[in-house]
Amino acid sequence: MLISAYYRLARAGYVLAREGALSIVSAKDLPGPLKLGIWLGRLIERPSVRKTGHVERLNKALNLLGPTYVKFGQTLATRPDVVGPQIANDLAGLQDKMDPFDATLVPAILSEALESKAAELTELSPPIAAASIAQVHKARLVPANGLPRTVAVKILRPGVAQRFMADIESYYAGAALAERFVLSTKRLKPTQVVETLDRSARLELDLRLEAAAISEMAENIKDDTGFVIPTVSWDHVAQNVLTTTWVDGIPIRDHAALDAAGVDRKALAAKVLQSFLRHAIRDGFFHADMHPGNLFADPRTGNVIAVDFGIMGRINRRERRFLADILYGFITRNYRLVAERHFDIGYVPKDQSVDDFALAIRSIGEPLHGRTAQDISMARVLGQLFVITDLFNMQTRPELVLLQKSMVLVEGVARALDPSLDIWTVAEPVVGDWLRKEEGPLGRVQDIRDQLSIFAEAAQRVPVILGQAELALNDYHANKRPPDRLTRWALLLVAAAGTIFFAVATVRVLLSTS
């Protein structure tokens, strides 16, 4: 690890402490080393910042530290139950109200990125939104062949990639220190979590990949209703430039404007939550940055409009089934199912008790039923989960980090729109329908296809293994004695046994799924 990474990590800690951001952290329930760190950090807090609000300090600190820290603030902005309503409200300014970069740089950036196609973008507006990674301009697209139309042009901030990578490097340093000196964090696999964030950041910094993500999601949702995304203009896309159709809507966090336009906020909250679950469970491909700054409402249709597809999440079919079963288990209060799925997928070690784990899950699930979103403290629920998973030696799954973060964001948005939202009732149609389909003929066929694919891949390796075995045996006998008939018969028996094994296994799969 480079020394500069530790320097940036130390600087981040210093800035947070100096600007008073640590004052919003309650150290009461933290482990000893972290509690000591908070106490020491507050010793260097600037006296003058004590006269200002906590949020102002945190906003200032995050903006000073750069894009990755701003992203962290954006997540906190959707959790009033964790950081308080006043802090969450002020942190919302981090989502699309950052200072834009110098507008005089834009023409040269477009010309270099799009070459001759840049001339087709006319009437470029001043920045209408500036976030931590990029800023957006409204423009008129006048193509050589086609009708003029209004578009949104997203441009990466100059130098942001280098800054982002430097920040990620400091995250690696922090994760390594945590694993070494705070043993209780080891099971959370902080280094692997940072690796997941690193991959996500690299994808977010190439707008060609964001264009591809929009295209893939458009195919997935083409038959859906209630959720709308823009269309890409591929002739006007580059690594640092993305051009899409312009979408008009009311910012989803502007509740007063939604009410004035007659938008049904309860229905909107349900659409946000159900759309996310549909994308995650049905498609395995979801918008992983659904903070309020990226969501709008169409006042004419009541549809959700999503923008900014720089961070996308993807989970495989096994993980989608796990997620659906867990949610359905909580919805139907089948805590045994929830516990068994954790063991089946290997999240909880086999040496733990399924019955005890089911009892622990029940202690979390039962208080949630019959309660509205405003009655549920997600901070307390997350705290319980942490204690329980620690008790059962459950390991963090880095591949699900984005999903977990996104579920927190989406639940926060839906909760803000409709404080009386019954999360389980809204989720059941999506989760239940998918599971019922999975249990039906089409789901069984897919199971067979998946299993046969595994066996086919394994079968292809058998000749190679046998060839290597024969070479090894020939080499051995060359040094000992000439190959005999017994050796050849042994190889033939191995081959026959392998063939029989795959045949029997295939038949078992077909029988188990019939």
Automatic annotation (TrEMBL):
Q: Spell out the InterPro entries in the cross-references.
A: ABC1_dom, Kinase-like_dom_sf, Prot_kinase_dom, UbiB, UbiB_bact, UbiB_kinase
Q: Which SUPFAM superfamilies does this UniProt record tie to the protein? A: Protein kinase-like (PK-like) (SSF56112)
This protein's UniProt keywords = ATP-binding, Cell inner membrane, Cell membrane, Kinase, Membrane, Nucleotide-binding, Transferase, Transmembrane, Transmembrane helix, Ubiquinone biosynthesis
Q: Which residues cross the membrane?
A: 489-511
The record's CDD domains line, in alphabetical order, gives: UbiB
Q: Any idea where the Protein kinase domain is?
A: 122-502
UniProt superkingdom: Bacteria
Q: Does the keyword Protein transport apply?
A: no
Protein biosynthesis in keyword set? no
Pathway(s) it belongs to: Cofactor biosynthesis; ubiquinone biosynthesis [regulation]
Coiled coil start-end: none
Give the record's family classification. Answer: Belongs to the protein kinase superfamily. ADCK protein kinase family.
Identify this protein by name.
Answer: 2-polyprenylphenol 6-hydroxylase
Q: Organism, per UniProt?
A: Devosia neptuniae
Supply the source organism's classification: Bacteria, Pseudomonadati, Pseudomonadota, Alphaproteobacteria, Hyphomicrobiales
